[in-house]
Amino acid sequence: MTNDKMNITKNEWPLWEVFIRSKAGLDHKHAGSLHAADEQMAIENARDVYTRRMEGVSIWVVESKYIHASDPGESASLYDPANDKIYRHPTFYELPDEVKYM
Amino acid sequence: MKLAYTLRLADDALIIGHRLSEWCGHGPILEQDIALTNTSLDHLGRARSLYQYAADLFNALPAAEKPSVFSSVAIQGLVAAGTAIDEDDVAYLRDGWDFRNLLLVEQPNNDWAYTVARSFYFDTFNFYFFSALQQSNDTALAAIAAKSLKEITYHLRWSSEWVIRLGDGTEESHQRMQQAVSDLWMYTGEMFVMNAADQDAVQHGYGVDVDALKTLWMERVKAVFDEATLAMPAGTWMQSGGKDGKHTDNLGYILAEMQFMQRTYPGMEW
Predict the structure, then answer these.
(1) Interface of chain B against chain A, CB under 8 Å?
(2) B229 vs chain A: nearest CA distance in angstroms?
(3) Is A44 in CB contact (< 8 Å) with chain B?
(4) Shortest distance, CA A70 to any CA of chain B (angstroms)
(5) Cα B13 from chain centroid?
(6) Three-state DSSP class for B112?
(7) How is the beta sheet containing A15-21 ordered, strand by strand?
(8) Is the distance from CB of B98 to CB of B72 less than 8 angstroms?
(9) Which of A37, A41, A49 sits opposite B34 (nearest CB)?
(10) Beta bridge partners of A87
């Protein structure tokens, strides 16, 4: 175990990302993050911190270190090219009246 | 008798709720601060339902009986004026000796281990008690029991987790957890004492035979202690009195803090 890792385990609980499903059938959505010693405690803490006002029916937790994020510095090359590709939107189709909820 | 019984259950809930609320803003970590405050509010919610039911029972008593129920001058004043009492009056205006809560719940927080140990003993008892109270022939008590049981099931999960975590944790956490469960052990016997109110409750079918819960309670506590690598406390001498209105001096301090506003500024709201 490296020195850094030891210090973290010794002094502070790891950070967890919390995902809450607000009702059956919907996706789990990111609700926030919290500290907990392990996954069991993370779920209990999430229950107490993020579902006290009936926000959810299901909880996922993932230790934050397992989340990999895109680099904000690369946003220009990653996302800007989509700006002028209007043909990628399905707006050129005429929907028959029978199709609902689109 | 049903009034006294209901009030006692309410007192347990109010006092443990108050004790846990003392952690608000002082929890060891934000998440646990919120967890304990949630739990505290569960207990206070149960206290409110039970106090309101107790107040209704009191208001339904024959006028001649009312003045002798509570010694509190403030409540006797309301009775003399012909005013119906409510949940707040029984919580904030009764005197210490009219409180019937278990000695266990009024014990101080001390540290995290004591707080966890106290909750664990009480939550385990509550779990079996309210499971059984669902069968009460009193529909109000049965309904309160059914609602409370969901909350209590979570309380028990929370406190069991912490007993195991600390017991089976570091050398220091083990030692401190063991100390806490051993020190509070002598207040656990009272939960299973069948006093006059308990006997009346069982006889008339509205309450629970607490003596019969003892084996269940012991087994559950033992199972959690085993997992937590904690030794079952060996002491056999048990301190009781709370259920008969004889309290440790802790209760006086709690009531002084809790009742001060209503006693000093009657009917005050904010």
Answers:
(1) 29-32, 34-35, 38, 154, 157-158, 161, 165
(2) 19
(3) yes
(4) 29
(5) 4
(6) helix
(7) A28-35, A15-21, A58-63
(8) yes
(9) A49
(10) none
ipTM computed for the complex: 0.76
Beta strand A15-21 with A58-63 is antiparallel
Region B11-23 average pLDDT: 97
Q: Considering the domain B2-264 in this protein, what is its CATH number? A: 1.20.1260.10
Would you give the distance in Å from CA B70 to the centre of its chain?
A: 20
Rounded CA gap, B105 and B244, in Å? 14
Residue A10 has pLDDT above 70, yes or no: no
Length of chain A: 102
pLDDT band at B3 (very low <50, low <70, confident <90, very high): very high
Assigned CATH for A3-68: 3.10.20.520
> How far is B95 from B262, CA to CA, in rounded Å?
13
> What is the mean predicted confidence (pLDDT) over B39-61?
97
pLDDT band at A1 (very low <50, low <70, confident <90, very high): very low
CB B255 within 8 A of CB B211: no
Three-state DSSP at A75 gives helix
Domain positions in chain B are: 2-264
Mean pLDDT over A68-72 rounds to: 93
Partners of B165 on chain A (C-beta within 8 Å) are: 37, 41
End-to-end, the C-alpha distance of chain B in Å comes to 34
Instruction: Kindly list the domain boundaries of chain A, sorted by start residue.
Output: 3-68
Both structure tokens of B207: 């309450």
3-class DSSP assignment, residue A29: strand
Nearest Cα of chain B lies from the Cα of A59 at a distance, in angstroms, of: 16
| DSSP-based three-state secondary structure for A73 | helix
Q: Do B32 and A37 touch (CB under 8 A)?
A: no
Smallest Cα–Cα separation from B256: which of B264, B248, B267? B264
Q: What is the mean pLDDT of residues B227-256?
A: 95
Helix segments in chain B, DSSP class H: 2-21, 30-59, 73-80, 87-92, 103-106, 112-133, 139-167, 171-184, 196-203, 214-227, 250-264
